[in-house]
Amino acid sequence: MTRKTVAKCLLLLVLLAFTGGCSTVKGWFSKKAPDKPPEVMAKEGLNELKKKKYDNAIETFEKVKDRYPYSEQALLAQIKLADAYFYKKKYDEALAAYKEFEKLHPTNKAVPYCIYREGLSYYRQRSTIDRDQTYTQKAMAEFKRLKQKFPNCEYITRAEKYMARCRRDLGEHEYYIAEFYYRTKRFPAALERYQTVVQEYPDFPKKAEAQERIEECQKILATADKKPPKHFYTPITNLFDAKW
Prior knowledge:
The chain is mainly alpha-helical. The chain has a domain at 38-88. The protein is built from twelve helices and no strands. It has helices at 3-20, 22-29, 38-50, 54-67, 72-87, 91-104, 111-123, 134-149, 156-183, 187-200, 207-226, 230-241. Helix 7 runs antiparallel to helix 8 (134-149). The protein is elongated, with a radius of gyration of 35 Å.
């Protein structure tokens, strides 16, 4: 192969590279757009959150966290990321974000807000009184924790209102189950539930009715205890019924 032929082949290869992979070649020489400053990105995220563009806000706050992890805006982004999930009703994701902030920054002034929001995230997932009350119990626990750790914080008044609602729901749940046991004549179980209502929920609206049920169950159980077993009467009855 002559030098002239080799030169033509090389030229052909170069032309193919430029025509077939022009985007790749362009990428080699193009400059990447510089990242926006963290304060600019944080402001954009806040605007997106205000406009209820939660997916956009989540993406923006994630970028601030990843690209500027040691900036002041990264702290704000962590909180607002959790808020975006909360407003989007992604409560599990919101909980994880609030808890992460609390774990990473235990002395930060935003910790009371995080605990309050954790309680609210559980509270928003609670079910009706005839269902499992795990979320109500968890919400109650978080609001109590807030009150114990930060009794003078600005969120206490609101937290106490939610605690009252949680107590009401938990009391209603216990009363509902007690009534079910009472109707189905499972009096020992009913008695235990009514006693729980009276003892643990002193402000429960139906406390008087629960107390009446307690007395009824106790009388029924006391009467049942006095009755001899049926097999004790059987032979005597047969004896007096016999024809001599």
